[in-house]
Structure formats: structure tokens, C-alpha cells
Automatic annotation (TrEMBL):
Family matches, as InterPro entries: AIPR_C
Official protein name in the record: AIPR family protein
Residue ranges constituting the Abortive phage infection protein C-terminal domain according to the UniProt record: 243-514
Length: 584
């Protein structure tokens, strides 16, 4: 049997998934499918490891639901089903039984007819609680499967009928991520460069477009004219990366390039440049056109035709020899299908929502915090992906051994750890921490030392939570019970189910333990060996929280994810650290 592109991409994808399986302790026949879910949520929803693991549904009785995620900004509940077929099974579809299973479960959850059997799975129990207590305007069922997806009229009709039967007051949608879309995500994630650029043009008109069978836009394009100086101003310092998807790069000694430069340099020929030159073609993931001020913003952009023209004009511009009246034909193609992008490049070869947290990037306290953290070899990213972005275009070697810390993580962990009155909010409603009305109060006592201590503790807590997850997924793994000092035979993982979503609760409890027992406090030195103190505090915090939950009849029957966001549980833990500090 011939090897297809689907076989090759499958092999490459599985290499990525293997590391996810190992890092997260996924076991059993569904381990790689769960890893596919982790990979998809990381690449497409940009969720961090902790958040992803909180929303993956482990264990038996998941009833066809592999993960969920509630987008608090849009009030959209996303429900996922992930499937990684066996090698060679790429021409099959998602079968009707899988579709019926997930929609049957959703119908029961939204109707309130969940059973004891459903509640036996902690993840489903958490999902039930979210449906009961959260504001949900839309629900999306997202099928992610490395095969043909869902094509047959029978299965598409089954989805349509299932959505109609759930609840007419709730808007249901579905999305199918098949092998082609997975390949596109894979290609995008492994691209060396992903530039976002903005250009001012002379004129630009919408041109040809191609739609898919469901009516959605597949390819969009624009054609127009841009002045040479505005083009060079747009690419500016990105000449080394703007041609990432181009087959050919600049040829210094080319007679053609000499001719381009001569035409653009002479007054008597500059006005004819538009007619003499073939122009340039730009390809991008997304284009946002603003015709009012003649500006277009391009995301994931690459010049796939015109490397000789652009580089020749750039050399003239840097030498101040570029005539002002040089204009160029420009074509912009918006397409995310990387197979077609490659074909477009080949045939033309004749020549990455701003999060609320990043609105505080320029706040004086944040700027000061960044400077203070530099002294401790921490690089606070005031802007999203700041370090990676700057590394592309400037020498960042002096920060080589620094710990990279996004501002939203720094502030969430500081508030969750040190501000008892807002610790529950740091877990339950992270985005509200950065509200302009509250940020001054939330950050008034922040310091580099506190941020570093919170980060050190959080890193250790996350490692312990990973131990717990591996143990829950594989009963033969006894790392977590060994950490607690419990005989594996006597260990009951259900008593510690709060750990899956308990990162901030444990962090707050640990810091309160250290407040009440100064001899257990640590120093803000990441590489200093403080493991013994940290592990003692984490172990005490876990046992303290476990006892609080299991000694309260109401808390004992609540969903774990609800408990770790509840103000009541935070308050009880904070009180317990004061009253029980001597026994720790």
C-alpha cells in the first residue's frame, strides 16, 4: 500500500503526542486520543497545561465526552470528543454510535436527568455543576478526529436532529476537526515564523474568493497598489523572516535585481515601475482590511512571490535612493490550508484576543515589577509572548538562563497566594483580577520577592498535582501515595480528587502555613535547595484541605472543581492554618 501524506503526518503527530502522554501519565488504549485532545486545546484554544488537565475527563463513565471548556468571555460551553484512529484508518468517518452517545449524554445533562452513574466520574460531575451554575448562551460540540470527520448525510442529519431535541432555548452548534484541519494546525504549530504586519496601501479591492460546501469562506483575496516606501516601512526589520514560505530568497548578483533597482532609482522610469514589474503576492492566515484609512493588518504573513523585488527596493531605501513615486502591484491571499498554500507558492515560483491581563502591560507597577524581577533572573512578560517575539529580532542572549513568567501568571499566583480575601476569585474568575477598577488594590503590595516565592511554590505544587493525575490514571503508579507517606494498598484517590483543580487553593494554604510557621518560609531563590520545606508545606496543605472537605457533609458531595473555587473552602483552609499551625 502506498504511503500517503496522511501516513506521514500521522507519524509526525504521534511523535508530538508521545511526549504529551509521557508528561501527563496518560495510560490505556485511549492515551493517545487523550493526548490529541491535550494537543488540540493547547494549539487552538491556547490553554495552559494546568487548565487543560482540569478540563479533560478521565476514567470510566465519561459517556462520550472527553473534555469541556467554558469560555467566560463569550459564555460558550465547548464540549469535545477526541479520536485518534489506528494507523491506516484515515478514510473512515466518526461513526453514528459515537455521535449518538455524546448527544445523548448532553441531552441528559441539560435536562437535569443525570444519574448516579454519571456522577461517579469526577469530570462529568464537574461539568454537571457548571451547567447548573454558570451563564451559558451557546454550546458547541467539537469533534476532533484524525479521519474523514463526518461526511455522510445520515450522520449529519443525526447531529441536526440531536441538537434540535436537546433544548430549544439553548443555541447548539457543532464543529468538525478532521484530518485536513489537524494537518493545518500541525503545520502552523511547526512553522519557524509567524509574522503579523500592517501595511498602508494606495488602493485595494476585494477580488476572487472560494467557499466551501457549507458556505464558509475558504480563500479570500484582494488586489491593489502600494507605494514602495510604505511596503518597505511595513516589512521593516522582518526581511529575514517575511519570506519563510517562499521557495526562493534574494539573489544578490542577479541582473534582474539590478534592473529592478535601476528602474526604481531613476526619476524618469520610477513612475513606470508598476507596469514593468510583476508585483508581489502575500499569503496570510487572516486579513483585516480598514478601507477608511487604507490600512490592512495581516496575521501569519509571508511574501511568497516578490522576494527579488522587495529586497531590491529595501536596499535602495536603506541607501536613500528609492524614488517616492514607485508603486507596486500587490495581491493578498488569505488561506489557512497549508497544502494549498504550498501549491500557491510552488506555482508562483517564477521569481499568530488580547487577554484582559495584557491591557495592564504599561501600568507603572508592572513596569517596575519587570525591572525588579530582572535582578533575580526572572523575565516578566508584560506583553503576550514578549520574550519569544523579541528573540526573533534582537539579541536576547543576556536573558538566556532567566525564568520566563507571563504577567497574567505572576499576578494570578501572587493574588491567589497572598491576598486571602481574593484567593478564591483568583481561581474562579481569573480575568476579573485585571479589571481596571480593581488592579490598583490588587497590586498595591506586590513585590518581586512575593511573585518569585509564589512561582516557586506553584511550580512544586503543579508537579505534585501531576503525580496525583498519573496515579489516578494508572493504579500501578504510586508516586503520589509515596509522597504522602501512605501505603499504596490503603490509599484512596477519591479522597484527593480536589487536587485536579486545586492549584490555587493549595498555593494559598501553603503560603498561609508559612505565615503562621516562619521557620517553614522560603527565600526567593529559584535554584536554592528548599525542597524539604516546600514538600512539608504542600503535604500539610493537601491533608488539611482533604480533612476540611471530608468532615463537611455538604462539601463531601460537591463537585471537585466547585470546591476549589468556593470562597467557603478557602476561608475554612485559611482558618485551619491558624488553628492547626502548631501541629504542622
Amino acid at each position: 500500500m502506498a504511503i500517503t501524506k496522511y501516513d506521514n503526518y500521522y507519524s509526525q503527530l504521534r511523535e508530538d503526542l508521545k511526549s504529551i502522554v509521557d508528561d501527563n501519565g496518560f495510560v490505556g488504549d485511549g492515551a493517545e486520543s487523550k493526548a490529541l485532545g491535550f494537543w488540540f486545546l493547547e494549539k487552538e484554544f491556547q490553554l495552559d497545561s494546568t487548565t487543560i488537565n482540569e478540563h479533560l475527563i478521565d476514567g470510566a463513565n465519561d459517556r462520550g465526552i472527553d473534555a469541556y471548556y467554558l469560555d467566560d468571555d463569550t459564555h460558550t460551553l465547548n464540549i469535545f470528543q477526541f479520536k485518534l484512529p489506528k494507523p491506516g484508518n484515515f478514510k473512515k468517518e466518526i461513526d453514528g454510535n459515537a455521535i449518538s452517545k455524546i448527544y445523548g449524554t448532553i441531552q441528559r445533562l441539560f435536562s437535569g436527568k443525570s444519574t448516579v452513574n454519571y456522577n461517579s466520574n469526577p469530570g462529568i460531575k464537574d461539568l454537571i455543576e457548571i451547567i447548573k451554575t454558570s451563564t451559558i448562551y451557546n454550546t458547541r460540540v467539537i469533534f476532533v478526529s484524525y479521519n474523514m470527520g463526518i461526511k455522510s448525510e445520515e450522520n449529519l442529519s443525526l447531529i441536526s436532529e440531536s441538537e434540535k431535541n436537546i433544548n430549544e432555548d439553548i443555541e447548539f452548534q457543532h464543529k468538525i476537526i478532521d484530518r485536513e484541519k489537524i494537518i493545518n494546525i500541525f503545520d502552523r504549530s511547526h512553522r519557524n515564523h509567524s509574522l503579523n504586519l500592517t501595511f498602508n496601501y494606495q488602493n485595494l479591492q476585494s477580488s476572487n474568493s472560494v467557499n466551501t460546501d457549507d458556505g464558509s469562506t475558504y480563500i479570500n483575496s484582494w488586489v491593489g497598489m502600494i507605494s514602495a516606501d510604505k511596503l518597505i516601512e511595513g516589512v521593516d526589520h522582518n526581511l529575514s523572516t517575511i519570506f519563510d514560505e517562499n521557495i526562493r530568497l534574494y539573489e544578490n548578483d542577479s541582473k534582474v535585481n539590478a534592473g529592478i533597482k535601476e528602474t526604481a532609482n531613476r526619476r524618469d522610469t520610477a513612475t513606470m515601475f508598476y507596469f514593468y514589474n510583476n508585483g508581489i503576492t502575500i499569503i496570510c492566515d487572516e486579513a483585516k482590511n480598514s478601507p477608511g484609512n487604507n490600512e490592512i493588518a495581516l496575521l501569519g504573513v509571508s511574501i511568497v512571490n516578490g522576494a527579488q523585488t522587495v529586497n531590491s527596493l529595501a536596499e535602495l531605501a536603506y541607501e536613500n535612493d528609492l524614488q517616492q513615486n514607485v508603486n507596486i502591484l500587490i495581491r493578498i491571499i488569505q488561506i489557512q490550508d497549508y497544502e494549498q498554500r504550498a501549491k500557491i507558492t510552488e506555482y508562483l515560483n517564477s521569481q499568530t484576543a488580547i487577554k484582559e491581563s495584557y491591557f495592564i502591560a504599561n501600568h507603572s507597577l508592572v513596569r517596575k515589577l519587570q525591572g525588579d524581577l530582572f535582578k533575580h533572573k526572572y523575565y516578566l512578560e508584560r506583553q503576550i509572548n514578549e520574550y519569544a517575539y523579541k528573540s526573533k529580532y534582537q539579541n536576547m542572549s543576556k536573558y538566556k538562563d532567566y525564568n520566563i513568567l507571563p504577567v497574567e501568571n505572576a499576578i494570578q499566583r501572587y493574588i491567589g497566594g497572598y491576598l486571602n480575601g481574593k484567593a478564591a476569585q483568583a481561581k474562579s474568575s481569573k480575568s476579573t483580577l485585571f479589571d481596571q477598577k480593581n488592579i490598583e488594590e490588587n497590586m498595591q503590595d506586590i513585590s518581586a520577592e512575593k511573585v518569585i516565592i509564589a512561582d516557586i511554590l506553584y511550580t512544586h505544587i503543579a508537579a505534585i498535582i501531576t503525580m496525583y493525575r498519573k496515579n489516578r490514571r494508572n493504579v500501578k503508579n504510586d508516586e503520589f501515595s509515596t509522597f504522602l507517606g501512605i501505603d499504596s494498598v490503603k490509599y484512596n484517590s477519591d479522597l484527593y480528587s480536589f487536587l485536579n483543580t486545586g492549584d490555587i487553593l493549595i498555593l494559598n494554604t501553603v503560603i498561609n502555613i508559612q505565615r503562621n510557621k516562619p521557620e517553614l518560609a522560603i527565600q526567593p531563590k529559584f535554584h536554592q535547595n528548599q525542597d524539604e520545606k516546600i514538600n512539608k508545606c504542600i503535604k500539610s496543605a493537601i491533608n488539611l484541605i482533604k480533612d476540611i472537605i471530608n468532615n463537611d457533609e455538604d462539601l463531601k458531595v460537591s463537585a471537585p472543581a466547585t470546591l476549589t473555587k468556593a470562597t467557603k473552602v478557602f476561608n475554612l483552609a485559611q482558618h485551619a492554618t491558624k488553628t492547626q499551625s502548631q501541629s504542622i
